[in-house]
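input
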Amino acid sequence: MQNRTDIDERFDKEKLRSFNEKVFATMPDEPYLGPVPAPVASRKVSVLDWCFRAAAVILAGVLLWTLMHQEAVPEPVAEAAAADLYVVPEGVRSRVTLPDSTVVWLNSGSELKVAAGFGDGRREVSLQGEGYFEVVSSPSDPFLIHTPAGATVKVTGTKFNLSCYSPHKEVRLTLLKGSVELLTPEKDVLTVAEGAKITLKGNYSSTDESADIEGDTAWTRGTLHFDNTSMREVLESIERWYGVNITVRDNSVYRNSFTADFRSESINQVLELLSITCDIVYVLDGREIILG
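output
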């Protein structure tokens, strides 16, 4: 395993700091689309090879800039039929309209499974990931959402954001409008008031009566939002948002927290800001990122 000393030796620190300052001074109005400083010990690269690499980086940056400046939510995919499975890959966001006209925005790296018979006296789905729901009201036909952690959300008609990426992570629900019941794996019933956020992890639950609704739903508007967020969660979100793989070589990285909003910034810019604000050294190679 590579330690921090190994990573530090691969960089010309003064060159990297100078580069950081230059890029940081342009954020966020002028996205940086060029290559980052190469490690000191990197192999020799021919002029032709360098040109190809630089062109690829610039093209990727332009494509990312174009994507992030489009509407925050793309046009809906096809109408959902019974037993459909919607998989949204990393680096992409999408929107689904269900047979009952319920609309679901899906964040990067999410899956929505629609139960067979949906819309025929049964409204039931399973979510793994993050979704923003606008559920059509039907008091006699509750809308059920199953999560990987075993909790179930029960609604009749409401707007809310639900994050449940894995069985081992927290279930977070922010209610914008209407009423919601969260059924724990132990069958306890937790209610949420409008404008509040409930967090469930294992047998522990907490409620924030004044939730950051704008922040919790920022992703639906094409913004990656962090507010004193733990570095572990920050890195997981960056991986999904940009479709990259991040390897952490020095666990001291996780001691940091991070606050920032990103909309049109490239992955290069995000890493540079992390480097400046959290004193993190990184190596970027295509979609592979090493932090130390």
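quick obs: The first strand starts at residue 85 and ends at 88.
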